[in-house]
Amino acid sequence: MTERRVSLFVAGTKGANLLRALFDGPDAPAPGFFPLAQVHLVASYSSSGLSHDPRAEIMEICRRHGLLYRDRHELKTTDYAASDLVLLAGWQYLLPDIDDRFIVFHDSLLPHLRGFNPTVTALILGDRRVGVTAFRPDEGVDTGPVYGQEALAIRETARIGEVYEALGGAYARLARRLVERAAMGSLAATPQDHSAATYSLWRNEDDYTIDWTRAASAIRRFVDAVSWPYLGAKTRYRGAEIRIDRVMEIPDLRFPLRQPGKIWTLSGNGEGADVVCGEGMLRILAARTPDAQPLRFTSLRQRLGE
């Protein structure tokens, strides 16, 4: 077996979770090493659209374990020219001179949910099985041949932060397997079944808005899917935009004239509110004002979203 030199291009929550699982997790090997490999470079960049920027944690892990760090803007091809493998997780920028050394880690079980934010989409859809796929990049969007996968079963009420944390371990387990196979000279990829492909669209700030005409179960999944580390689901209350952090489904009431978004009653001295949905009802358990302070609901006769 030949020891491999590995570069890690990691960014965002997914990249930080992979790096933490590799070097600070319960199965972490000696500092700076996979089994049969040495990590000699970590590259990253600042991330937007999150409640915090994981780059600082990535840099701190590198400092603590003596790993060479390069910011994306300073990265040169000569920095990783000697790498036998280049593993990418959470990386959203094109790189020059992609070759067979590059392995992309995508947080879905391809060919299901190619594209953007697949785990968010999976939670919104109510999928109970998510995972990670490692593949060789080609000209398409997540269409390259697959080196391996790691599946993960999740709870019906799982929230995106805990799923990403669990996926960090799945990323790490899969990365170790692939590095070991590469060291043994047995790393091979299998073409995807393109006829079975599904896709996940990109998301922006507009896509955080709650549609109260949806069923309560769908809205609850949506709130959980875009919660921390994302900015959180949003709606309007008394003319101002607020963020909804946590909700729960409650027994429905029979409204012959159903008007989704209307508050039915307040709970917990204004800490929560029961809201009529297109189907079913939700109790808001935690919400934030525009300046990120905990919101107390003080007015009953309000229709959320207006």
From TrEMBL:
<dbReference type="InterPro" id="IPR002376">
    <property type="entry name" value="Formyl_transf_N"/>
</dbReference>
<dbReference type="GO" id="GO:0005829">
    <property type="term" value="C:cytosol"/>
</dbReference>
<keyword id="KW-0614">Plasmid</keyword>
<dbReference type="InterPro" id="IPR011034">
    <property type="entry name" value="Formyl_transferase-like_C_sf"/>
</dbReference>
<protein>
    <recommendedName>
        <fullName>Methionyl-tRNA formyltransferase</fullName>
    </recommendedName>
</protein>
<feature type="domain" description="Formyl transferase C-terminal">
    <location>
        <begin position="206"/>
        <end position="298"/>
    </location>
</feature>
<dbReference type="Pfam" id="PF00551">
    <property type="entry name" value="Formyl_trans_N"/>
</dbReference>
<dbReference type="Pfam" id="PF02911">
    <property type="entry name" value="Formyl_trans_C"/>
</dbReference>
<feature type="domain" description="Formyl transferase N-terminal">
    <location>
        <begin position="76"/>
        <end position="166"/>
    </location>
</feature>
<dbReference type="GO" id="GO:0004479">
    <property type="term" value="F:methionyl-tRNA formyltransferase activity"/>
</dbReference>
<dbReference type="InterPro" id="IPR005793">
    <property type="entry name" value="Formyl_trans_C"/>
</dbReference>
<dbReference type="InterPro" id="IPR036477">
    <property type="entry name" value="Formyl_transf_N_sf"/>
</dbReference>
